[in-house]
C-alpha cells in the first residue's frame, strides 16, 4: 500500500535528525563516524540547513527534531554545542525543535541541563549512551535524571547497537551493552514523570524494547536509523497494533535520507491510513507538544 499523500502539504514529523554539517559529521563524529561511513560505503559529505529543509519539504516532512551531541569525555571529540543547536533552531523556528545534549560524565552536566532549557529554550534532551560511555541506570546519574524530570521536557535515549566505531579494533572502546534498553527501563521506573523516547528499533533487543514500551506509560519509541525494509517484523507488527499510539517516525538524518525512508515505508508496510497518520506525525505531535 502506498503512503498517504504527504506531498500536497508536508505533514510528517522526523523525531531524529542530526546536523548535515561538519559540526556533527566531522568534528563530533571523528574517527568513530569515519568507521561507520566506511562500513556503509558513504562519503561524509556536508551541506547546509536551507538544503536540508528543502529536501524535507519535498519528501513531505514539515518538522524535525534537531539533536545536540556531547560525548567529549568518552571520545575526546568536541560537542555539537547546545548554543549552536539553539541558533539553528532560531534560524528555522517552524522547521526545527532543538534537543540539547549534556555529557553525563562532566561535572557540570546538571547545571548545563538546566541552562539548556531555561536559558536556551531548547525542548528536550538526547543521550547516546554508547558514544557517551555511560550506563543510564547507574545511581551516579540520578541527580541529572531528577533535574530533567523537574524541567518537564522529553528525553531521547539511544536504543540498540551503534555503527559508530564499527570494524575498528575494540570498536574504539565503545560498549554495545550501554545501548540495551533495559538500562533505560530502570530510569523510566524510578522517574515516572520523565517522558522517554527510545530511539531506533533497538537491535538486538527489539523484544525488550517492545516489552518496555508496552509496560511503561512514559516510554515511547521511534523507527529511525533503519530503513523499514530492514526493521524486525515484530516491531512493525506492534507499531500497527499494541503500540500504534507510541511509535514515531524518524530518519537519523543525514545517515538516512527522508525520501529513502518514506519510499521503503510505502513499499514494505501495509498500515491503515489512520495508523500511518499516528506513526508519521500525530504521535510525535503529542509527545513533543507541538
Ligand atoms: Zn542518531
From TrEMBL:
Residues 13-290 form the Amidohydrolase-related domain. InterPro entries: ACMSD (IPR032465), Amidohydro-rel (IPR006680), Metal_Hydrolase (IPR032466). GO terms for molecular function: carboxy-lyase activity; hydrolase activity. Keywords: Hydrolase, Lyase. It comes from the Archaea. PANTHER family: 2-AMINO-3-CARBOXYLMUCONATE-6-SEMIALDEHYDE DECARBOXYLASE, CATALYTIC_ HYDROLASE. This is TIM-barrel fold metal-dependent hydrolase. It comes from Halococcus morrhuae DSM 1307. The lineage of its organism: Archaea, Methanobacteriati, Methanobacteriota, Stenosarchaea group, Halobacteria.
